[in-house]
């Protein structure tokens, strides 16, 4: 194993509070009441446009494509102005990333958040230096669960899928790894909606202090998904 690709929201970063705040600010502009945190968190994973669409629909609004795009851009303005006002790293993330880079691993982020906003979050939380590559939902024409963004992340690191694993928290991440024929390592404390046993994975962990040990136990060639 030479490369580790991470999802962002719900994996490295608990960003739900910022996404929640921006969602309710947007809804307020439409004269709609706020949604609770759990509802907004359930909308996370497919990128901001899909989050906005789901939130507006939940509030009784159905916009045409042009108006929905405008609403998404408005959300991005709110979020981009303060992307880590309420977000936090999961416990142990920074130490785990330092340990992995010190061991010679190459790290990347592959997320459905736009590339610029993903970089802003990583920089705002002080961990951007650990990642040689950041691939966002707008980096390519495809986005997760299409495998191309994940495979592109590995390629940009100069590695192959056989030399990499994907670490994520959600059903989308699981499906992306499966489509890319890459072992999936599940962080169990993120934003998943399914039971752990319903999400195929090569390994799982609940504390980042355990991640390096979990990864050392993975024989990528033996468990590569078909």
Written account of the structure:
With 226 residues, the protein is α/β, with parallel strands linked by helices. It has two domains: 3-14 and 88-223, 3-Layer(aba) Sandwich (Rossmann fold); 16-81, DNA polymerase, domain 1 (Orthogonal Bundle). The protein has ten helices and eight strands. It has helices at residues 16-29, 37-42, 48-58, 65-81, 93-102, 115-124, 148-156, 171-179, 211-216, 220-223, and strands at 3-6, 13-14, 88-89, 106-110, 133-135, 164-168, 184-187, 203-205. It has a six-stranded parallel β-sheet, sandwiched between helices. A two-stranded antiparallel ribbon has the order 2-3. Strand 4 (106-110), helix 6 and strand 5 (133-135) form a beta-alpha-beta unit. Helix 1 (16-29) packs across helix 4 and helix 3 packs across helix 4 (65-81). Mean pLDDT is 94; it is low at 220-226.
Report a brief summary of the structure.
This protein has 226 residues and is α/β, with parallel strands linked by helices. It is 42% helix and 12% strand. The strands form 2 sheets. The protein has a 6-stranded parallel β-sheet with strand order 5-4-1-6-7-8, with helices on both faces.
Strand content: 5-15%
Structural class per helix/strand content? alpha/beta
**Radius of gyration, CA atoms, in whole angstroms:** 17 Å
Mean model confidence by pLDDT? 94
N- to C-terminal distance: 18 Å
Count of helical stretches: 10
Adjacency order of strands in the biggest sheet = 5-4-1-6-7-8
The total of beta strands comes to 8
Q: Quick one: biggest sheet?
A: 6 strands, parallel
Total count of domains? 2
**Could you state the order of secondary-structure elements as H and E?**
EEHHHHEHEHEHEHEEHH
Q: Identify low-pLDDT runs.
A: 220-226
Shape: globular
CATH superfamily of the largest domain: HAD superfamily/HAD-like
What's the CATH first level of the largest domain? Alpha Beta
Assigned CATH architecture of the largest domain: 3-Layer(aba) Sandwich
According to CATH, the fold-level topology of the largest domain is Rossmann fold
């Amino acid at each position: 194993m030479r490369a580790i690709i991470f999802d962002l929201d719900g994996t490295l970063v608990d960003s739900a509070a910022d996404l929640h705040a921006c969602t309710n600010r947007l809804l307020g502009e439409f004269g709609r009441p706020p949604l609770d945190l759990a509802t907004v968190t359930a909308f996370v994973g497919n990128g901001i446009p899909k989050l906005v669409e789901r939130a507006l629909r939940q509030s009784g609004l159905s916009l045409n494509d042009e108006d929905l795009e405008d609403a998404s851009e408005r959300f991005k303005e709110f979020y981009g102005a303060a992307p880590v006002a309420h977000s936090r790293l999961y416990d142990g993330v920074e130490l785990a990333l330092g340990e992995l880079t010190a061991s010679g691993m190459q790290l990347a982020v592959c997320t459905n958040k736009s590339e610029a906003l993903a970089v802003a979050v990583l920089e705002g939380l002080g961990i951007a230096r650990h990642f040689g590559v950041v691939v966002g939902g707008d980096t390519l024409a495809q986005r997760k669960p299409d495998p191309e963004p994940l495979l592109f992340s590995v390629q940009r690191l100069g590695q192959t899928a056989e030399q990499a694993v994907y670490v994520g928290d959600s059903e989308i991440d699981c499906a992306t790894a499966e489509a890319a024929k890459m072992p999936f390592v599940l962080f169990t404390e993120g934003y998943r909606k399914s039971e752990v046993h319903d999400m195929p994975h090569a390994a799982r962990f609940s504390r980042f202090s355990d991640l390096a040990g979990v990864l050392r136990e993975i024989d990528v060639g033996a468990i590569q998904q078909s």
